[in-house]
């Protein structure tokens, strides 16, 4: 009997090892990788450049001494994030909140898809017969563990939301939609708009820097939770300019389709980061649906990445197009800024312009100077160039709420358009002249601009 058992074990080992590798070390093969250039982005090849002031610091700020740094390859948005693109984010957050509230109320009143009305928006787990074994396990073991008891439950996104009041299916649906609009007593001129204070995006992320500095921390100590209001602060158009008539920009700039391809403004550094988190979540949800590997996270560029990309491969240039002049050989301005001692219209623009205006730099990036200044993922410290690394330098201190903005804007003089000029704003501030663009890490190390 013992011989039979021993023989069975030997056969099991032989059969288990017979995987076609002939006993050789061939590595573990993962899923097939499908590299793709993200939509609307340009590949910025990695390389070295001289970061900082290449000529005299006329403002005598002395916060950007020249130093040679190296950055890895990455993708960057060809344009600043537009109103249209940011509205996709705001709309997704709004619709997700509406669907969640509909599902919760359907649960409370005991309605299911068979009942129609609000029941059609019930959580998909009300029909446990159609759930996978894993989904059933997760529901049985983890439901009710969060603050509301509904965390992790799937929404039914197969049914379209109804926005026309005349088509609401029942009073429960009407009740939910009523809570998403401003109170009736606060409406005016017959307009009852969305209560944008309800548009909040919740997300979590792993604080890698914190985890790396203290290896005694538990994973739960470095998983951070955030909730951010996502609607742009349109009152920035009024608040930024005292004794100035900018009400039309406040009323129309973000929502009206006439401004759809213009850069979004009135977005804080925190909101810009929330947008990056959502864009990653949105893309990876699609990747999962087609059984593809997740993509790298979208994020704000570091200060070094932004300056490297803005230079477009030109060393010691003053502006993204070279320089040192802001006009071309025909006397036309090359960017949207405040030229000629305040003649805003001299560059053919009064406020912002469409995101694909003017000529792109040699990396095919538009408006890296002027139009709107751009948030980057760095905290402002006048001395940061002195102590930051020379490879992929990044200085982002969570205790320092002064965040760097780069590139200058439609209301700035030419000095702030220079690729080496630094400025800052507080992380929770929103301005009518600050927007952002995102980047994504390139997979691999072989794309460099100055290989020998």
TrEMBL record:
Signal peptide: none annotated. Keywords: Lipoprotein. It holds the Pfam family FGE-sulfatase. InterPro entries: CTDL_fold (IPR016187), Glid_motil-assoc_lipo_GldK (IPR019866), Sulfatase_Mod_Factor_Kinase (IPR051043), SUMF_dom (IPR005532), SUMF_sf (IPR042095). This is Gliding motility lipoprotein GldK. Residues 40-439 form the Sulfatase-modifying factor enzyme-like domain. It comes from the Bacteria.
